Amino acid sequence: MNAVAKPDTFVEAPAAETNAGAKTKRKQLLFGLAGGVAAILAGGFAYQTLVASRLVTTNDAYVGADVAQVTPLVGGPIAQVLVQDTQQVKRGDVLVRLDDTDARLALARAEADLAATERRVRGIVATDSELKSQIAARTADQAQAAARVASARADLEKARIDLGRRQALAGSGSVSGDELTAAQTAFNTASANLKAAEAAQALAVANRASADSAHQANNVLIQDADLDQNPQVLAARAARDQARVDLERTIIRAPIDGVVSRRQVQVGQRVPAGYTLMWVVPVQQAYVDANFKEGQLAKVRPGQPVSLDADLYGGKVTYHGHVVGFSGGTGAAFAIVPAQNATGNWIKVVQRLPVRIALDPQELAAHPLRVGLSMNVDVDVSK
Description:
5 helices, 383 residues, six-stranded antiparallel β-barrel, Helix Hairpins, CATH 2.40.50.100, disordered N terminus, alpha+beta
């Protein structure tokens, strides 16, 4: 019996030691797990305190640019289209040519009108000298008519005296009837001559007044202005210049550097002024509009540095920029159909405010972006 009991005691001792070791390992694992959790929590707290609290992040951000809409300033048929979609162009490059036949004819007509107007004004200037001469002639006629009136009055006075003398002597028979009749006739003739002279004088005065009026009317057209400053000439030159500008506008050039997009014009198509031919996108002047939640913007200020990456490059390229400013309103406020919150079933929705971010031009040149691409944005609000 004793020999049998000893082996049993020998077997139970190692089992107890094994259980104790397992408990120890379990405690070590629990302590290790607790330490790991504590380390994770501490790391998370440290990250939140030292890193995350300094950054405001959003992935609701997209590339934008101030695109240029290419439209003709004059209408006409399309003669040439010299660019295609995706083509890079420089400012001043010819994009489209309109048929300039009508514009050339309009310019020729305007130049002819200008030449005719200048000749007409020169004629008015020459007429001014002629009218001055006519005034001088009418002045002389008026003086001559006045002299004739004075002479006729003198003749009438002499005839009146002669008639009176003969009438006084007629009763005594000293004057014959023929002499009295001749004196009466001379008086009547002198009276008629005076009336004729006075009528001629009135006509001379009227002619002088007419010449003065004609000169004044002509002088209004050229007063205080030479040929180059004459209103009629200026108007004709403005019409000529407008026709020349319209001719130049038949050649449509790129307004900015960029990439041609949405070209929607073909040769032979007749387009009116203002018709959208294409768009030019200045990809080297792209920016980012980041739509942050309203609760994220308390510490965001213009000028703060920003780090960005594009889905296009998969996070391999990091862009740098800075905050430019904030939009004047949320996207909902500028929607075509804005939200109507004054209803009984109102539910608050967190709004987003667009924040404009400028990008580094050198980084853009090295890694080009396109309008509408998605971006991930981190704003450092600690600076």
